[in-house]
Specification:
Keywords: Hydrolase. Belongs to the AB hydrolase superfamily. AB hydrolase 2 family. It holds the Pfam family Abhydrolase_2. The protein is built from 5 helices and 7 strands, in the order ββαβαβαββαβα. By secondary structure, the chain is of the alpha/beta class. A 7-stranded mixed sheet has the order 1-3-2-4-5-6-7, with helices on both faces. Strand 4, helix 3 and strand 5 form a beta-alpha-beta unit. It is globular, with a radius of gyration of 15 Å.
Length: 208
């Protein structure tokens, strides 16, 4: 088992000039540089980019639907790293309503888990194939009010790592916590990010 050390790749607009920031979380086996490459297609030119790195290129060792103890202490450490990054951004003068999140696969699951445990009005949340983490969704872990935060969640059907049923369950919880969720489910799509998803993320979150 392992924990994470805080290593963050910075990109995008200089924080001294930016009015918005985005936390980008890579998937299992990916890297901060991989997820940052989405800046070429996402409308985040005016944002400061913060992309933390996971130890072993993985935020937690097993499936996001494995029993919680199997993914500890890595999962709690990952949530703490994201929280530290958010606090750093706020300390640099950017408030929560101007902080965005984007993640793919394992990074999408971590994105949804962190923001739902700490729900407030964020700039927006993008989850490219992900759902809330746990063998069963534990609603007692979630608190706060998204206050209309725009959220976009997309997935394939079937997806080899993320069941559509968990995605729909996650959407229902976010909506109960007053997130404004749009979603897209793509029959037969591989475990990847499509150009249509990028367009929808731009339209429904980044340009909202």
């Amino acid at each position: 088992m392992y924990t994470h050390s805080k290593q963050v790749v910075r990109d995008g607009a200089p924080i001294e000039e930016a009015k918005k920031a985005i936390v980008m979380l890579h998937g299992r086996g990916g890297s901060a540089e991989d997820i940052i490459s989405l800046k070429r297609v996402l409308n985040i030119n005016d944002m400061a980019i913060y992309a933390p790195k996971a130890s072993n290129n993985s935020w937690y060792p097993y499936s996001f639907m494995a029993p919680a103890n199997q993914n500890q202490p890595a999962l709690d450490s990952a949530l703490d790293i994201v929280d530290q990054v958010v606090r750093d951004i706020e300390a640099d003068g950017i408030s929560a309503e101007n902080i965005y999140f984007a993640g793919f696969s394992q990074g999408a699951c971590l994105t949804l888990e962190y923001t739902t445990r700490n729900a407030k009005r964020y700039g927006g949340i993008i989850a490219f194939t992900g759902g809330l983490i746990g063998e069963q969704v534990a609603e007692e872990n979630y608190s706060g009010d998204f206050a209309g935060t725009p959220v976009f969640i997309a997935t394939g059907d079937p997806d080899p790592h993320v069941p559509v049923s968990r995605v729909k369950e996650s959407i229902a919880i976010l909506e109960r916590m007053n997130a404004f969720v749009t979603f897209a489910i793509y029959p037969g799509r591989q475990h990847t990010i499509s150009s249509q998803e990028i367009q929808l993320a731009n339209k429904n979150v980044l340009d909202a």
